[in-house]
Design the sequence.
């Protein structure tokens, strides 16, 4: 039997009028979604490079223990690279750290040796 996989998609929280970041309501929306996802076995939180998506992902991740945050970035034309950041700690007070068993296989661990280019 093949295991099921689920992809959960969300849009960033509400933004301030100049779109520079999340409004107070947008921060509450992201925190609420993080609390709703606490019982869901997530492998990673992936988001785009914009400030509002990064804020949303961080606020969601602050509610989830041991779920790494993955930020896709462009390293050169036609080539995609992913930057990963694992988070550890308690809900609401997170700091960068290492998450060995939950690190997504789509990106290199920060302590892994790099390959020559």
Sequence:
């Amino acid at each position: 039997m093949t295991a099921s996989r689920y992809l959960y998609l969300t849009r960033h929280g509400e933004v301030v009028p100049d779109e520079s970041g999340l409004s107070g309501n947008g921060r509450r929306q992201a925190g609420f979604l993080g609390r709703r996802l606490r019982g869901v076995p997530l492998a990673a939180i992936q988001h785009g490079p914009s400030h509002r998506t990064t804020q949303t992902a961080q606020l969601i991740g602050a509610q989830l223990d041991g779920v790494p945050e993955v930020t896709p970035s462009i390293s050169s034309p036609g080539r995609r690279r992913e930057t990963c950041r694992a988070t550890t700690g308690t809900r609401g007070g997170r700091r960068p750290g290492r998450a060995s068993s939950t690190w997504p296989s789509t990106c290199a661990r920060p302590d892994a040796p790099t390959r020559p280019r």
In short: The longest helix spans residues 24-36. The helical segments are 24-36, 51-61. Residues 35 and 111 are 30 Å apart (CA to CA).
